[in-house]
Amino acid sequence: MTRRRPIFVPAMLIAGFLFLYIPILLLILYSFNESRLVTVWGGFSTKWYAALFQNEQLLGAAWLSFKIAAMNATGATILGTLAGLALARFGRFRGRPLLTGMATAPLVMPEVITGLSLLLLFVAMEQAFGWPGGRGITTITIAHMTFSMAYVTVVVQSRLSTLDESLEEAAMDLGARPAMVFFLITLPIIRPAILAGWLLAFTLSWDDLVITSFVTGPGSSTLPLVIFSKVRLGVSPDINALASILVLIVAIGVAIAGVYMHRQQKRRERDVQQALAANL
Amino acid sequence: MSRLLARLGGRTVVTGIPYLWLLLFFLVPFLIVLKISISDMRMGMPPYEPLLVWASGQLVEFKVNFANYTFLWEDALYRNAYLNSILTAGISTVLCLLIGYPMAYGIARSPPAWRNILLLLVMLPFWTSFLLRVYAWIGILKNNGVINNFLMWTGLIDEPIVMLQTNFAVYIGIVYSYLPFMVLPLYTAIEKLDLTLLEAAADLGCRPGKTFFRITVPLTRSGIIAGCMLVFIPAVGEFVIPALLGGPDTLMIGRVLWEEFFNNRDWPIASAVAIAMLLLLVVPIMILQRFQGQQLGVHR
């Protein structure tokens, strides 16, 4: 495979990347289309961007989605970091298999099942305890935290499992309490993973349509719900403009995060090497 | 706070918080779905009958109704939806593997400095909105969309080819959306592959094709299985892709559940559909969990 046909693999790689990126590039290209018929070119225009910023419904939905995504990401990061820490550092404990199962199953669980089951839980809880008292931001955030914490758990756990425990053990030997070890040693080491987890949880929540549809209530239309109801009726140029803005934000965000993590990693490697050199 | 921590033990607290959260919001909901799937529908809110009827502290009635399940089994609509979901998810998974394997192989064999950038490029679309990426394909596949406009302009066709609202569009949508999930575990597995084994096989006169199927594929099996499960499981219950790209006759079980719930407001049937889907996915999920170690290496 590698020797006889050195062309095949690079060609597939290029074709794969074209497949991944051409739709996104077309989406952006047609957002500058004058014509209302999205895919028929009618000249260059930025009017759909202007229309976007006057669309109160869309802006309101975007703000609601942003709030939910930020709350969700923070909560999911805390829960996911705790779960990741437990799975990576506590060895075998009672109930570990169940925690592993529950922490990873949401990664692949079809969203219609998660959404339906959470809605039925909220309805049952409301009947039994009178809480959560209607559905809206609270129920959406809880639902998002439940599935996005799984991603944080995986990111944190895999980061911790690639690091050896000697630093933490050294701190313990020097008399630091477990909580102190966590805040002074473990947390700074896994900070890039926690940041990645937070961003991932934010994106998942910001993007979620199916689970939100189940657990939302009147007046709580997040951005994906508004987009979906528009998109169902067919293509429309202002959605293209919205998509282009979102793609741009993500590209910038990922680039910044990538550079930051790269630097962090380099710095840490250098610190470790210096520490080792000093000890020798 | 610290005294409480000390009494409970820090570990118990660290483990306990996510544990309780997941028990309450992940495990208990399934039990409720199971319960409602065996209750009767009724008008009102919530639209199902209680299983247990209590009167003055005594259990007076215990109604279990498996009719929802027999209904699912007997109605051809649901059977077809299940079979069609498995078929669609299966075909899409195979297509994903056929595209993803050479990509992962190419990335793993590229110069080390490039690998992280190429991986980032695979992941980048995943960070942009899933909904909008599916939407992008509507504009490409529809009758006056990009592909048809281009083909008509070149004169290759006179009539637009109907691509949107077909199974073909659904396959494309699934492959496009889930490709990163296939590439990442494959990359992890291929990167670990010991190249000297391939050289040894070549030295001993094994042909490249045979080497690939006898050595590379078996040694990257864990990545193949993890990748396939990561695509197959969510694809079976997919709603957005068949709703936007599929036609009215594209029956997929996620869509059926959605319609039972939102359009027919039949919560017990929707619950029974969910439980039946879950039973179908238990085996793939367990296979995935077995290969979880390999899958864990994926996210960095």
Structural write-up:
The complex is a heterodimer of chains A (280) and B (300). Chain A has 12 helices and no strands. Chain A has helices at residues 8-31, 47-52, 56-89, 96-108, 111-129, 137-162, 166-173, 178-189, 191-207, 210-215, 223-231, 237-279. Chain A is 78% helix and 0% strand. By secondary structure, chain A is an all-alpha fold. Chain A has one domain (57-279): MetI-like (MetI-like fold, Orthogonal Bundle). With 300 residues, chain B is mostly helical. Chain B has one domain (68-296): Orthogonal Bundle (MetI-like fold), CATH 1.10.3720. Helix content of chain B is 74%, strand content 3%. In chain B, strand 1 and strand 2 (58-62) form a beta hairpin. In chain B, helix 4 (76-108) crosses helix 8 (167-192). Chains A and B meet through helix 1, helix 3, helix 4, helix 5 and helix 6 of A and helix 2, helix 4, helix 5, helix 6 and helix 8 of B.
What's the structural blueprint in terms of helices and strands?
The complex is a heterodimer of chains A (280) and B (300).
Chain A: H1 8-31, H2 47-52, H3 56-89, H4 96-108, H5 111-129, H6 137-162, H7 166-173, H8 178-189, H9 191-207, H10 210-215, H11 223-231, H12 237-279
Helix pairs in contact in A: 1-12, 3-6, 3-9, 3-11, 4-6, 6-9, 7-8
Chain B: H1 2-8, H2 10-37, E1 52-55, E2 58-62, H3 67-74, H4 76-108, H5 112-127, H6 130-141, H7 146-154, H8 167-192, H9 195-203, H10 208-219, H11 221-236, H12 240-245, H13 253-262, H14 267-290, H15 292-296
Antiparallel strand pairs in B: 1-2
Helix pairs in contact in B: 1-2, 2-14, 4-8, 4-11, 5-8, 6-8, 8-11, 9-10, 11-14, 13-14
| Strand line-up in the sheet with most strands of chain B | 1-2
Distance between the termini of chain B: 33 Å
Largest interface: A-B, 98 and 99 residues
Q: End-to-end span of chain A in angstroms?
A: 46 Å
Range of strand content of chain B: under 5%
Classify the fold: give the CATH topology of chain A. Answer: MetI-like fold
